[in-house]
Design brief:
single chain; 320 residues; Helix Hairpins; two-stranded antiparallel ribbon; 8 helices; elongated; transmembrane helix; membrane; 5peptide_repeat; K_chnl_dom
Length: 320
Protein backbone atom coordinates (compact mmCIF):
# COMPACT_ATOMS: atom_id res chain seq x y z
CA UNK A 1 0.00 0.00 0.00
CA UNK A 2 1.29 3.43 -0.90
CA UNK A 3 0.89 6.62 1.08
CA UNK A 4 -1.18 8.26 -1.59
CA UNK A 5 -4.64 9.65 -0.82
CA UNK A 6 -7.65 8.29 -2.70
CA UNK A 7 -8.20 10.13 -5.95
CA UNK A 8 -12.00 10.08 -5.76
CA UNK A 9 -13.62 13.50 -5.84
CA UNK A 10 -17.38 13.98 -5.61
CA UNK A 11 -19.38 16.36 -7.76
CA UNK A 12 -19.88 18.69 -4.81
CA UNK A 13 -16.12 18.95 -4.34
CA UNK A 14 -15.74 16.50 -1.46
CA UNK A 15 -12.39 14.70 -1.60
CA UNK A 16 -11.93 11.24 -0.07
CA UNK A 17 -9.10 11.21 2.48
CA UNK A 18 -8.57 7.45 2.67
CA UNK A 19 -5.33 5.75 1.70
CA UNK A 20 -5.26 4.72 -1.93
CA UNK A 21 -4.24 1.37 -3.34
CA UNK A 22 -2.36 0.67 -6.53
CA UNK A 23 -5.30 1.87 -8.61
CA UNK A 24 -5.16 5.31 -6.99
CA UNK A 25 -8.49 4.71 -5.24
CA UNK A 26 -9.27 3.53 -1.72
CA UNK A 27 -11.00 0.33 -0.69
CA UNK A 28 -14.45 1.93 -0.83
CA UNK A 29 -14.10 3.69 -4.17
CA UNK A 30 -12.19 1.08 -6.15
CA UNK A 31 -14.62 -0.83 -8.40
CA UNK A 32 -12.03 -3.59 -8.92
CA UNK A 33 -12.08 -4.60 -5.24
CA UNK A 34 -14.44 -7.55 -4.90
CA UNK A 35 -16.40 -7.02 -1.68
CA UNK A 36 -19.03 -9.72 -2.15
CA UNK A 37 -17.57 -11.91 0.60
CA UNK A 38 -16.70 -9.02 2.92
CA UNK A 39 -18.89 -8.07 5.88
CA UNK A 40 -19.04 -4.34 5.20
CA UNK A 41 -22.46 -3.38 6.61
CA UNK A 42 -21.23 -2.15 9.99
CA UNK A 43 -18.35 -0.23 8.39
CA UNK A 44 -20.67 1.50 5.92
CA UNK A 45 -23.04 2.48 8.74
CA UNK A 46 -20.14 3.82 10.79
CA UNK A 47 -18.85 5.83 7.81
CA UNK A 48 -22.26 7.43 7.28
CA UNK A 49 -22.68 8.15 11.00
CA UNK A 50 -19.34 9.99 11.00
CA UNK A 51 -20.85 12.61 8.71
CA UNK A 52 -18.81 11.73 5.65
CA UNK A 53 -20.70 11.17 2.37
CA UNK A 54 -21.06 7.78 0.79
CA UNK A 55 -20.70 9.27 -2.66
CA UNK A 56 -19.13 6.93 -5.19
CA UNK A 57 -19.00 3.91 -2.87
CA UNK A 58 -18.48 0.67 -4.83
CA UNK A 59 -20.69 -1.86 -3.10
CA UNK A 60 -21.62 -4.18 -5.96
CA UNK A 61 -22.84 -7.65 -4.89
CA UNK A 62 -22.37 -6.88 -1.20
CA UNK A 63 -24.67 -8.17 1.52
CA UNK A 64 -26.27 -5.10 3.13
CA UNK A 65 -29.34 -6.78 4.59
CA UNK A 66 -31.09 -4.58 7.16
CA UNK A 67 -28.48 -1.82 6.80
CA UNK A 68 -29.41 1.39 8.63
CA UNK A 69 -28.67 4.55 6.65
CA UNK A 70 -31.20 6.94 8.17
CA UNK A 71 -29.83 10.30 9.24
CA UNK A 72 -31.87 10.62 12.42
CA UNK A 73 -32.59 14.11 13.71
CA UNK A 74 -31.73 15.68 10.39
CA UNK A 75 -34.14 16.62 7.61
CA UNK A 76 -31.47 15.94 5.01
CA UNK A 77 -30.53 12.28 4.52
CA UNK A 78 -27.07 10.87 3.97
CA UNK A 79 -25.49 11.55 0.60
CA UNK A 80 -24.94 8.45 -1.49
CA UNK A 81 -24.67 9.97 -4.95
CA UNK A 82 -23.11 7.90 -7.68
CA UNK A 83 -22.75 4.82 -5.46
CA UNK A 84 -22.80 1.37 -7.05
CA UNK A 85 -25.19 -1.18 -5.50
CA UNK A 86 -25.25 -3.51 -8.51
CA UNK A 87 -26.81 -6.83 -7.39
CA UNK A 88 -26.38 -5.78 -3.76
CA UNK A 89 -28.63 -7.39 -1.19
CA UNK A 90 -30.54 -4.50 0.36
CA UNK A 91 -33.37 -6.55 1.81
CA UNK A 92 -35.17 -4.57 4.54
CA UNK A 93 -32.60 -1.78 4.23
CA UNK A 94 -33.48 1.48 6.01
CA UNK A 95 -32.73 4.22 3.48
CA UNK A 96 -35.26 6.90 4.44
CA UNK A 97 -34.30 10.22 2.81
CA UNK A 98 -31.09 8.80 1.31
CA UNK A 99 -29.67 10.81 -1.60
CA UNK A 100 -29.23 8.20 -4.33
CA UNK A 101 -28.95 10.51 -7.31
CA UNK A 102 -26.99 8.93 -10.18
CA UNK A 103 -26.53 5.77 -8.11
CA UNK A 104 -26.79 2.28 -9.59
CA UNK A 105 -29.38 -0.03 -8.06
CA UNK A 106 -29.36 -2.28 -11.09
CA UNK A 107 -30.65 -5.76 -10.20
CA UNK A 108 -30.38 -4.89 -6.51
CA UNK A 109 -32.59 -6.79 -4.07
CA UNK A 110 -34.75 -4.14 -2.40
CA UNK A 111 -37.30 -6.50 -0.91
CA UNK A 112 -39.17 -4.71 1.92
CA UNK A 113 -36.57 -1.92 1.91
CA UNK A 114 -37.56 1.60 2.97
CA UNK A 115 -36.95 4.06 0.14
CA UNK A 116 -39.44 6.63 1.37
CA UNK A 117 -38.38 10.23 0.66
CA UNK A 118 -35.24 9.14 -1.19
CA UNK A 119 -33.83 11.06 -4.18
CA UNK A 120 -33.45 8.93 -7.30
CA UNK A 121 -32.83 11.39 -10.12
CA UNK A 122 -30.49 9.86 -12.70
CA UNK A 123 -30.34 6.52 -10.91
CA UNK A 124 -30.25 3.11 -12.56
CA UNK A 125 -33.18 0.93 -11.40
CA UNK A 126 -33.09 -1.60 -14.23
CA UNK A 127 -34.04 -5.04 -12.94
CA UNK A 128 -34.26 -3.92 -9.31
CA UNK A 129 -36.50 -6.11 -7.15
CA UNK A 130 -38.79 -3.61 -5.43
CA UNK A 131 -41.37 -6.02 -4.06
CA UNK A 132 -43.03 -4.42 -1.02
CA UNK A 133 -40.48 -1.61 -1.08
CA UNK A 134 -41.55 1.63 0.61
CA UNK A 135 -41.90 4.18 -2.19
CA UNK A 136 -43.89 7.02 -0.62
CA UNK A 137 -42.83 10.61 -1.31
CA UNK A 138 -39.87 9.50 -3.44
CA UNK A 139 -38.23 12.26 -5.47
CA UNK A 140 -37.96 10.42 -8.79
CA UNK A 141 -36.34 13.36 -10.54
CA UNK A 142 -36.63 14.27 -14.20
CA UNK A 143 -34.89 11.30 -15.83
CA UNK A 144 -33.43 7.92 -14.99
CA UNK A 145 -30.03 6.89 -16.30
CA UNK A 146 -31.31 4.96 -19.33
CA UNK A 147 -33.68 7.76 -20.30
CA UNK A 148 -30.96 10.37 -20.11
CA UNK A 149 -28.55 8.27 -22.18
CA UNK A 150 -31.21 7.39 -24.77
CA UNK A 151 -31.80 11.01 -25.76
CA UNK A 152 -28.05 11.55 -26.12
CA UNK A 153 -27.32 8.33 -28.01
CA UNK A 154 -26.62 8.64 -31.74
CA UNK A 155 -26.57 4.94 -32.64
CA UNK A 156 -30.16 3.85 -33.51
CA UNK A 157 -29.83 0.28 -32.23
CA UNK A 158 -28.30 1.38 -28.94
CA UNK A 159 -30.93 4.10 -28.53
CA UNK A 160 -33.65 1.49 -29.17
CA UNK A 161 -32.17 -0.71 -26.45
CA UNK A 162 -32.03 2.17 -23.98
CA UNK A 163 -35.69 3.03 -24.61
CA UNK A 164 -36.60 -0.61 -23.99
CA UNK A 165 -34.74 -0.52 -20.70
CA UNK A 166 -36.44 2.76 -19.76
CA UNK A 167 -39.82 1.22 -20.50
CA UNK A 168 -38.97 -1.75 -18.30
CA UNK A 169 -37.91 0.50 -15.41
CA UNK A 170 -41.12 2.54 -15.60
CA UNK A 171 -43.27 -0.59 -15.83
CA UNK A 172 -41.63 -2.04 -12.74
CA UNK A 173 -42.17 1.14 -10.73
CA UNK A 174 -45.75 1.48 -11.97
CA UNK A 175 -46.66 -2.04 -10.86
CA UNK A 176 -45.18 -1.56 -7.41
CA UNK A 177 -46.92 1.80 -6.95
CA UNK A 178 -50.26 0.31 -7.99
CA UNK A 179 -49.88 -2.44 -5.38
CA UNK A 180 -49.20 0.20 -2.72
CA UNK A 181 -52.09 2.44 -3.72
CA UNK A 182 -49.83 5.22 -5.06
CA UNK A 183 -52.04 5.71 -8.09
CA UNK A 184 -50.94 9.23 -9.03
CA UNK A 185 -47.33 8.07 -9.23
CA UNK A 186 -48.42 4.92 -11.05
CA UNK A 187 -50.28 7.05 -13.61
CA UNK A 188 -47.23 9.24 -14.13
CA UNK A 189 -45.02 6.23 -14.83
CA UNK A 190 -47.66 4.64 -17.05
CA UNK A 191 -47.50 7.69 -19.30
CA UNK A 192 -43.70 7.50 -19.37
CA UNK A 193 -43.87 3.77 -20.09
CA UNK A 194 -46.14 4.35 -23.08
CA UNK A 195 -43.97 7.16 -24.39
CA UNK A 196 -40.84 4.99 -24.27
CA UNK A 197 -42.77 2.32 -26.14
CA UNK A 198 -43.68 4.93 -28.75
CA UNK A 199 -40.04 5.97 -29.15
CA UNK A 200 -39.24 2.39 -30.16
CA UNK A 201 -41.64 2.54 -33.11
CA UNK A 202 -40.50 3.63 -36.59
CA UNK A 203 -40.36 7.42 -36.74
CA UNK A 204 -42.75 7.76 -39.66
CA UNK A 205 -45.35 5.12 -38.92
CA UNK A 206 -49.08 5.06 -38.31
CA UNK A 207 -48.61 3.34 -34.93
CA UNK A 208 -46.29 6.07 -33.68
CA UNK A 209 -48.54 8.85 -34.98
CA UNK A 210 -51.57 7.23 -33.33
CA UNK A 211 -49.71 6.82 -30.04
CA UNK A 212 -48.65 10.46 -30.14
CA UNK A 213 -52.22 11.54 -30.83
CA UNK A 214 -53.54 9.57 -27.85
CA UNK A 215 -50.83 11.13 -25.68
CA UNK A 216 -51.72 14.65 -26.77
CA UNK A 217 -55.43 13.95 -26.58
CA UNK A 218 -55.71 12.42 -23.10
CA UNK A 219 -52.23 11.54 -21.79
CA UNK A 220 -52.88 7.84 -22.43
CA UNK A 221 -56.04 8.03 -20.34
CA UNK A 222 -54.33 9.61 -17.34
CA UNK A 223 -55.01 13.30 -17.94
CA UNK A 224 -58.71 14.35 -18.20
CA UNK A 225 -57.68 18.02 -18.30
CA UNK A 226 -56.19 17.44 -21.76
CA UNK A 227 -59.58 16.24 -22.97
CA UNK A 228 -61.17 19.42 -21.62
CA UNK A 229 -58.55 21.61 -23.31
CA UNK A 230 -59.02 19.74 -26.60
CA UNK A 231 -62.79 20.19 -26.35
CA UNK A 232 -62.46 23.94 -25.80
CA UNK A 233 -60.10 24.23 -28.78
CA UNK A 234 -62.54 22.33 -31.02
CA UNK A 235 -65.50 24.47 -29.90
CA UNK A 236 -63.66 27.75 -30.43
CA UNK A 237 -62.18 26.67 -33.78
CA UNK A 238 -65.53 25.56 -35.13
CA UNK A 239 -67.19 28.74 -33.81
CA UNK A 240 -64.73 30.82 -35.83
CA UNK A 241 -65.49 28.69 -38.88
CA UNK A 242 -69.24 29.21 -38.47
CA UNK A 243 -68.68 32.93 -38.00
CA UNK A 244 -66.68 33.09 -41.24
CA UNK A 245 -68.94 30.82 -43.31
CA UNK A 246 -72.25 32.02 -41.91
CA UNK A 247 -75.24 30.48 -40.14
CA UNK A 248 -78.99 31.07 -40.30
CA UNK A 249 -80.99 32.13 -37.26
CA UNK A 250 -84.71 31.41 -37.29
CA UNK A 251 -85.67 34.35 -35.06
CA UNK A 252 -82.91 36.99 -34.79
CA UNK A 253 -82.61 38.25 -31.21
CA UNK A 254 -81.05 41.59 -32.14
CA UNK A 255 -82.53 42.55 -35.55
CA UNK A 256 -81.80 46.27 -35.19
CA UNK A 257 -78.06 46.03 -34.51
CA UNK A 258 -75.58 47.01 -37.22
CA UNK A 259 -71.84 47.42 -37.64
CA UNK A 260 -69.39 46.15 -35.01
CA UNK A 261 -72.10 45.30 -32.48
CA UNK A 262 -73.91 43.14 -35.01
CA UNK A 263 -70.70 41.27 -35.88
CA UNK A 264 -69.94 40.76 -32.19
CA UNK A 265 -73.34 39.19 -31.55
CA UNK A 266 -72.90 37.05 -34.65
CA UNK A 267 -69.69 35.76 -33.11
CA UNK A 268 -71.53 34.98 -29.87
CA UNK A 269 -74.21 33.17 -31.85
CA UNK A 270 -71.51 31.15 -33.62
CA UNK A 271 -69.95 30.22 -30.30
CA UNK A 272 -73.37 29.25 -28.90
CA UNK A 273 -74.12 27.14 -31.98
CA UNK A 274 -70.70 25.45 -31.69
CA UNK A 275 -71.35 24.49 -28.05
CA UNK A 276 -74.83 23.16 -28.91
CA UNK A 277 -73.42 21.15 -31.82
CA UNK A 278 -70.42 19.78 -29.89
CA UNK A 279 -72.66 18.58 -27.05
CA UNK A 280 -75.16 17.18 -29.62
CA UNK A 281 -78.05 19.10 -28.05
CA UNK A 282 -79.27 20.43 -31.41
CA UNK A 283 -81.92 22.99 -30.41
CA UNK A 284 -82.48 23.97 -34.03
CA UNK A 285 -82.79 27.73 -33.45
CA UNK A 286 -79.58 28.26 -35.45
CA UNK A 287 -78.68 26.21 -38.52
CA UNK A 288 -75.48 26.08 -40.57
CA UNK A 289 -75.43 27.04 -44.21
CA UNK A 290 -73.26 25.89 -47.08
CA UNK A 291 -69.97 24.24 -46.18
CA UNK A 292 -70.60 24.98 -42.49
CA UNK A 293 -72.98 22.00 -42.48
CA UNK A 294 -70.08 19.60 -43.01
CA UNK A 295 -68.14 21.26 -40.20
CA UNK A 296 -71.18 20.91 -37.93
CA UNK A 297 -71.51 17.22 -38.76
CA UNK A 298 -67.83 16.63 -38.03
CA UNK A 299 -68.02 18.61 -34.77
CA UNK A 300 -71.07 16.66 -33.61
CA UNK A 301 -69.28 13.35 -34.26
CA UNK A 302 -66.11 14.56 -32.55
CA UNK A 303 -68.09 15.97 -29.62
CA UNK A 304 -69.94 12.74 -28.87
CA UNK A 305 -66.67 10.79 -28.99
CA UNK A 306 -64.80 13.32 -26.84
CA UNK A 307 -67.46 13.51 -24.14
CA UNK A 308 -67.59 9.73 -23.88
CA UNK A 309 -63.81 9.63 -23.60
CA UNK A 310 -63.82 12.31 -20.91
CA UNK A 311 -66.27 10.32 -18.81
CA UNK A 312 -64.09 7.21 -19.09
CA UNK A 313 -60.86 9.05 -18.26
CA UNK A 314 -62.42 11.07 -15.45
CA UNK A 315 -64.09 8.08 -13.81
CA UNK A 316 -60.85 6.08 -14.10
CA UNK A 317 -58.96 8.89 -12.40
CA UNK A 318 -61.47 9.52 -9.65
CA UNK A 319 -62.33 5.92 -8.75
CA UNK A 320 -58.70 5.27 -7.81
Amino acid sequence: MSGKVCGFKARNGWQCDQQAGESGLCYWHDPNVDKRHHDVKADVEAWAASGRPLDGFQLARTNLTDIHLVNRGNKQGYSCQGADFYRANLTEAHCFGLDLRNASLMKANLLRANLNCTHLDGSNLLGADMARTGLENVDWGEQFKQERLAFLEKDPSRRQSLFQESEEVCRNIRKQCEKQGLFDVAGYFFKKEMRFRRYQMPTFSFQRALSKTVDLFCGYGEDPLRVVIFSVLVIVSCALAYFALGTTQANPIYPDLTGVEARFYELLNALYFSVVTFTTLGYGDITPSGFARFIAAFEAFLGSFTMALFVVVFVKKMTR
